[in-house]
Write a structure and sequence with these properties.
Layout (H helix, E strand, L loop, with lengths): L1 H5 L6 H33 L4 H49 L3 H4 L4 H43 L1 H48 L1 H6 L3 H27 L1 H26 L10 H43 L19 E8 L10 E8 L4 E6 L5 H6 L9 E6 L2 E2 L5 H6 L1 E4 L8 E2 H5 L8 H10 L3 H6 L7 E2 L8 H13 L5 E5 L7 H14 L4 E5 L11 E6 L2 E6 L1 H7 L1 H15 L1
Parallel strand pairs: 3-10, 3-11, 6-9, 9-10
Antiparallel strand pairs: 1-2, 1-4, 4-5, 7-8, 11-12
């Protein structure tokens, strides 16, 4: 797992290497300074030797300057490495998400993916930035300070042998409790983002039903849950500082007491005692050692907090796309013919029943096919298999005479234009949205496609025409206008197969008829699959499929189905009666 995430360092590896190296230099200077101070006091101040005072003072200044330079350089390199790591991690996660199939995306909620790309990556950036500095600083400072302290007095250094194990036991008890809480907190963040996203996305519905208070209550509940968990975690973490401070001051008292006796004993036998300068250095090393342990405990806390985000980001990177290209993919689609050969499909292996079952059908290139059926009958599932948004569970689906799994997926999807049941426009101009269908489309091609989709007239009625700005999701245009823009966008691809998944439900019957007429006259060679609820939208089709419970229960023309299909008859007469009334 760590090896996979380490790949995200890439071009910032030198910054990640130089930061700890500079930190080694800073620590070396910091542990040298107390030793120079002891020599300055013992051999310069006490005997009043100005040469030693000047020499040691210069050495102190040099060490301080070098320590400052090394520290600044380490911070700069760590910052560069940390932000670069986060940038690459976000890029890798986002790039990998683009390769997901619909079934992969179904495993993660939108709110969860957003949280992982933002809050979780930010947490990992902070942790990585601290790691490359503190993971070097803390052990180096601890080891070098202990060596220096033992060099001065092994007897006094034994004090640390009591303090260090006590602090270690405290950490061992603290970390597991805190980790469980933070693991729960980051999952709650997903819920928080989901509540906010649902509210903002459906704000018109919220206001229409006067449900603001209910939405505020939902948000308050989730936010309160995060507050309670964080408070609980902080209560555990709050124990860390008192324990640390107790150990620091206990060591100071012990060293003061033992050290004072050793300083006095040095008057009788200097070899067995301790000088005043050495005692003051021991205080400094005590502070360095125990503050390093305090810092080490903070590192462990940070790692504990980062473990959950680490696993969540790793899940995104390690999720294997269900759909992949074959080793030697076909890069050209011969025509728009479609063949279903005993096709069955389940959305997951755990699904109780198949969404499609034993579907066999031949659609010739250039044909217009209407698809009718009740809600949940499998209409959308059927057409989503054609551009290989999902793979069939059983059987074979062919386009242009070849199994769709033999094609390069980009080539296949470029030749199959699909206007989904839920139309989606992106923020930008109308022109920008249309060019999703063909980035190199000329203005003439865009106008022609919009005329076929009956969108040109309403676009021209806008003050800015094709440069009119579209809000995110197309909220500033009507449902019918949005549908027509999406149809025009699909037509710009000049596909061999055009799929309209209930894509004219929001337009009036006259406009619907004009769009179908334009399809017959302008793109006769394109295979057209039209899912609709209105009989009028499909009655002129070459072939009409009637679906029920994931199966095709009737196939034929409008006249044939009126004679043979009970379901078609019921729909037809119910709509005809409604029209007459």
């Amino acid at each position: 797992m760590l090896r996979r995430l380490a790949r995200c360092i890439r071009e910032y590896k030198w910054a990640a290497i130089l930061s700890p190296l500079c930190m080694i230099g800073e620590v070396s200077m910091e542990v040298t300074i107390p030793l120079i101070m002891a020599n300055l006091y013992d051999f310069g101040v006490v005997p009043q030797n100005m040469n030693v005072v000047v020499t040691k003072s210069i050495q102190l200044v040099i060490c301080a300057v070098f320590s400052l330079c090394f520290g600044c350089a380490s911070a700069i390199f760590a910052s560069k490495a940390g932000t670069g790591f986060a940038k690459n991690l976000r890029h890798d996660m986002y790039h990998h998400i683009q390769s997901y199939s619909f079934s992969n995306i179904d495993k993660f909620s939108t709110a969860s993916i957003v949280t992982r790309l933002t809050s979780d990556v930010a947490r990992l950036q902070m942790t990585f930035q601290m790691m490359i500095r503190m993971f070097v600083r803390t052990p180096m400072m601890l080891i070098l300070s202990l060596i220096m302290a033992m060099r001065i007095s092994v007897k006094l250094s034994l004090v640390y042998c009591v303090a260090i194990p006590l602090l270690a036991v405290g950490l061992i008890i603290l970390v597991p409790h805190v980790h469980k809480i933070f693991e729960r907190v980051f999952k709650t963040y997903d819920k928080l983002n989901n509540v906010v996203q649902e509210n903002v996305h459906g704000i018109r519905v919220v206001k229409a039903f006067v449900r603001e208070d209910k939405e505020i209550e939902k948000f308050t509940d989730v936010s309160g849950s995060i507050y309670r968990d964080f408070t609980k975690a902080e209560k555990f973490l709050a124990l860390n500082n008192p324990v640390m401070q107790t150990c620091v001051y206990a060591c100071m008292i012990a060293i003061s007491w033992i050290g004072a006796h050793m300083v006095m004993a040095s008057g009788n036998n200097p070899d067995l005692g301790l000088s005043t300068g050495e005692l003051s250095s021991m205080f400094t090393y005590t502070t360095q050692i125990l503050s390093t342990l305090m810092m080490l405990s903070m590192v462990f806390v940070m790692l504990t907090m980062s473990r959950a985000p680490l696993l969540r980001c790793y899940e995104i990177l390690m999720e294997k796309p269900d759909l992949t290209n074959p080793q030697d993919p076909v890069t050209e689609v011969a025509d728009g013919s479609i063949d279903f050969e005993n096709v069955s499909f389940r959305y997951s292996a755990a699904a109780k029943r198949a969404a499609l079952e034993d579907v066999s059908l031949h659609i010739p290139a250039g044909a217009t096919v209407g698809i009718l059926g009740g809600t949940g009958s499998g209409k959308s599932t059927l057409v989503q298999l054609i551009p290989r948004l999902y793979d069939v569970t059983e059987g074979v689906l062919k386009v242009g005479g070849l199994d769709v799994r033999e094609y390069d997926m980009d080539v296949l999807r470029d030749n199959v234009a699909m206007v989904l049941q839920k139309n989606e426009l992106f923020s930008g101009s109308i022109r920008d949205n249309l060019r999703w269908g063909n980035a190199a489309a000329t203005d003439e091609e865009m106008i022609h496609a919009c005329k076929l989709a009956c969108a040109h007239d309403f676009i021209e009625s806008f003050p800015d025409g094709y440069d009119t700005h579209i809000e995110q999701g197309g909220t500033n245009v009507s449902g019918g206008q949005k549908q027509r823009l999406c149809i025009a966008r699909a037509l710009l691809k000049k596909p061999k197969i055009l799929i309209l998944d209930d894509s004219t439900s929001a337009v009036d019957t006259h406009t619907d008829a004009m769009i179908r007429k334009a399809f017959r006259e302008e793109i006769p060679g394109t295979t057209k699959l039209i899912i609709a609820q209105r009989i009028a939208s499909v009655q002129e089709a070459d072939m009409i499929l009637v679906m029920d419970n994931g199966q095709i229960v009737a196939v034929g023309t409008h006249d044939d189905l009126l004679k043979t299909s009970t379901i078609y008859q019921e729909v037809y007469y119910s709509q005809k009666k409604g029209g007459e009334e």
